[in-house]
Amino acid sequence: MIAPRSISRVASAAAIACWWLFGAAAAADSILAGTVTDAVTHQPIVGAQVDIEYSGQMVGSGTSDVDGLYKVPFTIPPSAPSLVIMIASAHSQSYEINRSNFQVNAGTPVETAHNISLFPRGVMACLSQAEHPVIVGHFLSPLGRDFSNLPDRVALSMDRALNTRLQTVHLPPELQPSFEPCDAAKPKTPRLGPNFAKALRADAFIGGDVAEEPPHFTVSTYLSDAYDFFSSPEIAISRSVDLNNPSGASMAAEMHVAVLAAIASGLARKNDCVTAITVLSVAEQLINVVPSYIAALRKDCEARLPNAGLTKASP
């Protein structure tokens, strides 16, 4: 025979279980689910905080798991209309906060999955509004050295070197590249360069590293593009660079040529082969031996023009 006290404990446990099954379900009207990923690498972010707001009030909260998945129960006030717009915000220690709207109809999210991407801290500020941006990212420095301002110098140097030449062929200002520094953009490997270019809506992404050879430095530069024109990063090495001189961060001609090729590739993809050939003509003047990728892109563009066999544009 079961003792009365034991019966009381069993009844209490059953009541608690019923509350969790029915009471909690009633309190949480619905569930928002999705993934939280890195906006650049597309890898899942573990432990990201996901909060849900309605009309300025927090109505749900949760975290992403090891696969970046989250499922956040939330409560809709009884006075809310059937169709409402709510806000999901996600953030993590190393990432910027991202706030996005989602719709709920009759207590159920309209989207099957509400996926959220987060930018590493500082990188989101580098999103460009220019038509043809080239982002100059972080350069890995020797131990004990701080070259965080090197992207600024490289961007300024390339702007002067290339846009001056592009202006001589009357390239419209809106089609000229905008060289923009972003030291916060730090790919863990040069092969992630295309990811940064695409995430930052740029034609190309430049990064690199610096080796000290007193009294000067050797700067290795890696260029990737957003159009997969280059199957792997283009590498150029600039030797005997005087980084103490603000204008001394000039890049090798091979890097200038690769940048122009990336821009021309973007123009060709937008079916503007006339302008692409004009840009290529400037690139061809910068180097003695024209790279095969320049010749191939020119050939492709010329074949797509109404007058096949168009001669090279003359600056």
Describe this structure as you would to a colleague:
- The chain has 315 residues and is of the alpha+beta class.
- The chain folds into 2 domains: 29-118, Immunoglobulin-like, CATH 2.60.40.10; 124-304, TolB, N-terminal domain (Rossmann fold), CATH 3.40.50.
- Helices cover 30% and strands 30% of the residues.
- The chain has 6 helices and 13 strands.
- The chain has a 5-stranded antiparallel β-sheet, with no helix packed on it. A 5-stranded mixed β-sheet has the order 10-9-11-12-13. A 3-stranded mixed β-sheet has the order 4-1-8, with no helix packed on it.
- A hairpin with a 2-residue loop joins strand 2 and strand 3 (57-63).
- Helix 4 runs parallel beside helix 6 (292-304).
In short:
The chain is an alpha+beta fold.
Average pLDDT works out at 87
- Percent helix, as a range, is 25-40%
- Shape descriptor: elongated
Termini separation: 103 Å
Number of domains: 2
Q: Unreliable runs, pLDDT <50, ≥5 residues?
A: 1-27, 310-315
- Rg over CA atoms, rounded to whole Å, is 27 Å
* Tally of strands: 13
CATH architecture of the largest domain: 3-Layer(aba) Sandwich
According to CATH, what is the class of the largest domain?
Answer: Alpha Beta
Biggest β-sheet: strands ordered side by side in the sheet: 3-2-5-6-7
Number of helices: 6
